[in-house]
Amino acid sequence: MLARVRSWPRRPELLILTALSAFTRFWGLFQPHAVVFDEVHYEKFTAEYLARVFYLDVHPPLANQIFALTARLFGIPYLSLGRPEPEPLLRIVPALAGTLIIPVFYLFLRRLGAPRRLATLGGALLLLDNALLAESRVIVPDSMLVLFALTALTVYLAARRRTGAARWLVLAAAALCAGLAVSIKWTGLSALGLIALAWGVEGIRRRTPWRRLAAEGAMLLVIPVAVYLSVFAVHFARMTRGGPGDMWMSAAFRATLQGDAKYTPGAHMAFLDKFFEVNRAMRRSDAALVGTANVGASPWYSWPVIKHAMTFWAGAPQPDGRRATIFLAGNPVVWYGILVGFGVIGVAWLRRRDRFAAWRAPLALTAVAYVANFLPFALIQRVMYQYSYFMAFVYSLAFAVLGVGIVAGWAADGDDSRPWAFPSRRSAALYWGLIALAAVSFLYYAPITYGWPLTPQAFQMRFWLVQRHF
């Protein structure tokens, strides 16, 4: 452990990425002092949690439990949360999760075999994405979802290099993170699926004895299930009073809620019965969104090109004509650069397939992860939003960075002792130029990410990106 701690100074890029991630997420976090986007819903859920009032959300309750715990720690009274008043302190939770996503992504690329300069490139591009930044600065659960899911797969990749008790411990940690991801949103189940797939391929290639396979497989299944059940156990223990979620529940369930019209003192309902009923109700409430419309909604196939930027908040016009707005709009250099990277990788694969031979497994894993977190949305009929693409976006960036790094010669083995020694000056110029271009684009769109006032003319210069939903 001490040796690992001492190795940190030899990885200054990871410290720099983490510091910049914290700065961009926390800087001006409590502004605007207003309810931004879906904060109204999660503040309401937090208030109901603190008041022990039963509610029903389409997502599992872990994120709301974390928000409620944060409110309790900071002494935020639930009465204020029950009104449409801003409680910016709760933004600390998604901001912290958003901060940690960047170093975890760096470590994810490292576990895939990427050298330091390639992992740094990936971390820098993700750091400079305006959309993920904006989502990490409001009281919504998506940054927690991305963090837990990405950490789960990263920790599993670390387990592949371990044996004995260390492997069991790290596998258990991966399963725990996967359980946390699915307890935030059901889409977090993709993390467990990816781990299971990679673990199965690993077992076949290494010809792992079937008894060990069975034991590891059982642990990878039991721990996430136990986490998910535990989250609901806390949920039921806390939600003891009738509330807005009662209408979705059976008479037997409502009989256990104090204050409900059907409340019966002494009534009891088995945990598993309550568990399955609430999960069925979550599915029904989710299905009830089919056919609804929202100006911020967008079809799944439009997400990779960020065609439908979403309005998070719009301030009142100022006397000088300036106006502050916050949009969920990605950094075009990063998002469109990924698509260009796909094309470069495809052409290079056709021309020099042997160049990719040593990288087939990492590329395959990131490609499968991208597809698994993107294409299933084609089957969903209800209204959907751009932020549902974030998990797929992270894996698409990993795939593009690895593939372009291979083509450009940035993925060469044995360069960790001299991570910034490039094959040529042109190669170095391309590398640093890409980061610089992404940084310039990030700063250009920062006003609509942070909500800085802009003149109508300055806003119009950025209007082409956000035109759809302004």
Tell me the layout of helices and strands.
Elements lengths: L1 H6 L4 H15 L12 H12 L11 H12 L4 H4 L10 H20 L4 H12 L2 H6 L6 H18 L4 H21 L4 H18 L3 H29 L12 H4 L16 H17 L22 E5 L8 E6 L3 H20 L8 H13 L17 H19 L16 H26 L2 E2 L1 H11 L4
Antiparallel strand pairs: 1-2, 2-3
Structure summary:
Helix content is 60%, strand content 3%.
Outline the structure in words.
- The protein is an all-alpha fold and 470 residues long.
- It is built from 19 helices and 3 strands.
- It has helices at 2-7, 12-26, 39-50, 62-73, 78-81, 92-111, 116-127, 130-135, 142-159, 164-184, 189-206, 210-238, 251-254, 271-287, 332-351, 360-372, 390-408, 425-450, 456-466, and strands spanning 310-314, 323-328, 453-454.
- Strands 1-2-3 form a 3-stranded antiparallel β-sheet.
- The N and C termini lie far apart (51 Å).
What are the main properties of this structure?
470 residues, mainly alpha, three-stranded antiparallel beta sheet, 19 helices, 60% helix
Q: Roughly how many Å apart are the termini? A: 51 Å
What is the average per-residue confidence, as pLDDT, rounded to a whole number? 91
Give the overall silhouette.
globular
Biggest beta sheet summary:
3 strands, antiparallel
**Helix amount:** 55-70%
Instruction: Output the number of helix runs.
Output: 19
Number of strands: 3
Please indicate the percent range of residues in DSSP E strands (runs of 2 or more).
under 5%
Q: What is the N-to-C succession of helices and strands?
A: HHHHHHHHHHHHHHEEHHHHEH
Name the structural class.
mainly alpha
With strands numbered from the N-terminus, the spatial order across the biggest sheet is: 1-2-3
The Rg value, from CA coordinates, equals: 23 Å
What ranges have pLDDT less than 50 throughout 5 or more consecutive residues? 1-7
